[in-house]
């Protein structure tokens, strides 16, 4: 389905903590990577957003840790966008090790920032859709 996007990440040795599993902060990086790749695939790359005087701002994030990830694991991180009324939107990620093991769930509240005024822009879905070269990647309209 076009509103679902996924990237694969290999767990690297320097992401492991003293307990032998992925450090908690790295999960946030995995989510950030998936968000950036998802928006880029939609045609809303960081460079394109900057050219149009906008940026994505993360307002809130939550991680739910469910299973350990270890060095060498391949992790599929999917992402889904949800728009509603107002100036913010949500992006959710599921991190999977293999087809049956959910390692973590990440939820984020985000906004579209006007680079000049440093304020959130209204109608982020409309603005991103107008900017996108593959708007179907942004989810249902």
Automatic annotation (TrEMBL):
InterPro entries reported for this sequence: 4-hydroxybenzoyl-CoA_TE, HotDog_dom_sf
Superkingdom to which the source organism belongs: Bacteria
Signal peptide interval: none
CDD domains for this protein: 4HBT
Protein name as catalogued: Acyl-CoA thioesterase
Native organism: Pseudonocardia xinjiangensis
Lineage: Bacteria, Bacillati, Actinomycetota, Actinomycetes, Pseudonocardiales
């Amino acid at each position: 389905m076009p509103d679902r996007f996924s990237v694969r990440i290999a767990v690297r040795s320097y992401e492991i903590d003293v307990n032998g599993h992925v450090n908690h902060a790295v999960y946030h990086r995995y989510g950030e990577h998936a968000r950036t790749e998802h928006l880029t695939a939609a045609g809303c790359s960081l460079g394109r957003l900057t050219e149009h005087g906008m940026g994505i701002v993360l307002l809130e994030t939550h991680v739910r840790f469910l299973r350990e990830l270890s060095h060498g694991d391949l992790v599929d991180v999917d992402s889904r966008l949800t728009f509603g009324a107002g100036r913010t939107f949500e992006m959710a990620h599921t991190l999977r090790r293999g087809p049956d093991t959910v390692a973590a769930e990440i939820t984020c509240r985000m906004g579209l920032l006007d680079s000049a005024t440093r304020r959130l822009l209204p109608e982020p879905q409309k603005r991103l859709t107008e900017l996108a070269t593959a708007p179907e990647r942004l989810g249902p309209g």
